[in-house]
Amino acid sequence: MLVKYLGVFLVGGIFCVIAQIILDKTKLTPAHVLVGYVTLGVILGALGIYEYIVKFGNAGATIPLPGFGYALAKGVIKEVKETGLLGVFTGGIKGTAGGITAAIVFGYLMATIFKARTKN
Questions:
Q1: What is residue 86's DSSP assignment?
Q2: Is the pTM of the predicted complex or chain greater than 0.70?
Q3: How far is the C-alpha of 95 from the C-alpha of 75, rounded, in Å?
Q4: For residue 10, which of 20, 66, 104, 120 sits 20 to 30 Å off, Cα-Cα?
Q5: How far is it, in rounded angstroms, from Cα 40 to Cα 18?
Q6: Which residue ranges run through the membrane (predicted)?
Q7: Which of 3, 37, 2, 1 is nearest to 17 (CA)?
Q8: Rounded to the nearest 10 degrees, how much is the dihedral formed by the CA atoms of 104, 37, 41, 88?
């Protein structure tokens, strides 16, 4: 069990460290890193490489942004096998619908519980 937690911590931590280095050493914005990480997850997922990262890192690999890209790629691949070319358009949505729905529901819940304010 400890080894599993260590894998989650290492993989998630490595993603965070890489993103922070990119933000500190380049002029890229957090939005650039977000898009780059999701795209990286799609590419590595489509090539079958990200599956090995998920096997080692579990939630440390599936929860961060590359994990979202991986879920998109995995959903598209599955849907293309089942429905053909139409799966290119529907697979990503089906593959990530649960996570997106949870983010919306919990985001709404937090917005109703806590009072939003601007930073000074």
A1: G
A2: yes
A3: 4
A4: 104
A5: 13
A6: 6-23, 35-53, 95-114
A7: 37
A8: 60
